[in-house]
Amino acid sequence: MQIRLWPRSLAARTALVLLASLALVQVAGLTIHAFDRMELQRFAQTRDIASRAMNNYRSVALALPEQRAAVVAELNQREDLRDGTAVVLDASPPGAELPPTPAPLMRELRVSMQLVPMPQLQRPREVVIRGDAEIARIALGMRLLDGRWVGTTMPLPPVRPWHSLNFLISFVVMTLAAALLTLWAVRRLTAPVATLAAAAEALGRDVNAPPLPETGPLEVAQAAAAFNTMAARIRRFVQDRTFLLTAIGHDLRTPITRLKLRAEFMEDDEQRRKMMLDLDELESMVAATLAFGRDIAADEPVSAVDLTELARTVLDETADAQPEMTEKLVYQGPDHVTVRARPKSLKRALTNLVANAVKYGGNARVVLAAPVNGSVMLLVEDDGPGVPPGELERVFQPFHRIETSRNRETGGTGLGLPIARNILRAHGGDVVLSNRPLGGVRAAVSLPV
Ligand SMILES: Nc1ncnc2c1ncn2[C@@H]1O[C@H](COP(=O)(O)OP(=O)(O)OP(=O)(O)O)[C@@H](O)[C@H]1O
Ligand SMILES: [Mg+2]
What we know:
Blueprint: H1 10-62, H2 68-77, E1 86-90, H3 103-114, E2 127-132, E3 137-143, E4 149-155, H4 165-205, H5 218-264, H6 269-297, E5 303-306, H7 307-321, E6 329-332, E7 338-341, H8 343-361, E8 364-368, E9 375-381, H9 403-407, H10 416-426, E10 430-435, E11 441-448
Parallel strand pairs: 6-8
Antiparallel strand pairs: 1-4, 2-3, 3-4, 5-7, 8-9, 9-11, 10-11
Bound molecules: adenosine-5'-triphosphate (ATP) and magnesium ion.
């Protein structure tokens, strides 16, 4: 599996950037602190070394020449010198076996030695310093007036960048706490984006989806309010259109009835018969329009729908209405595929497609596939004559019927496909028609699961 270095989600990206900066700041802070601390330690160490060596020298220098060896022996006995410090009185300077001392350390030691108070006359005539931090030992030799050397060899432990385990633990705890807080804040900040996306998705499926809560931080509340206003406008737009449609349909009914009455008085029987047929067609179109408007207005609740069961029901009902077709109605697909939908609307959409397949194709085959990528595909196929390629989209226009079927007296109003598409799009899906390579029509329905 490939690990993505640059994640796709906003939360993960923000968290990554913040955590990286936090790490950077912590490392920089820690480094500065460590250097500072090492410098301080080195400073204290040089002061200590210089003053100890100088004090040893002074004790020896202030003693009478014959007592000096005894003083050195006494110094070596002292408690505080038991860390590996050795004082010697010798004819040559100490630390010949040690490497030379680096110049900066040497300079600091000499300066520190000047700070130890001592009568000017007693100050050492000559000073020899050897050893370094690498070998962890240092030797300071000072020459007495009698030509002998007082040497103090002592440990020079390497400076430690960290005070203690406690410091490290508290540093790690602090960093972890900051990281956790960052993650928490990022999650909180980016959550509204996901909520908004989910709300937009829900609105696509259902115009009457509940509004977003207009709470939380100012910007989030404003975004939610804007979204709700937009949803309300869309809702009103749809309602106005539907209302217009049903109002026209409704108002047409009275003139049609009047025309029918008038047609009764027509002299010419043939003309009257044709006029009556036209008016009947007009009447059924109006009725279909009204039914369509009613469907949209009725906001049926969304629930879990088993597509397999729905397809079988539609096919069974078609078989009941046309028993001679029973053999030609087939379902292929899994036993259960559940989607969230408005059951009655979805059934109407599927019924319209199956009715077309039966009416114009002479058979119907519903093929359902298992969901892929959050969407499920349902095909309604027939083995009929198909639809001319130029008409594949036009048949979705209201009242549009292909001339040939009109002549066959199949008696539709041309609302079946537009209604089916309208319903499926309101579910966040769609339906498209295509001609199958070996003849017949395929209506491909897609629905989100
Ligand atoms: N499976 C099909 N095979 C061939 N032609 C089809 C098929 N489905 C639809 N059509 C064509 O598309 C036109 C529009 O179909 P639509 O379902 O919208 O209306 P209708 O079937 O004529 O009337 P209604 O469904 O409202 O009773 C049909 O008149 C028909 O000419
Ligand atoms: Mg139809």
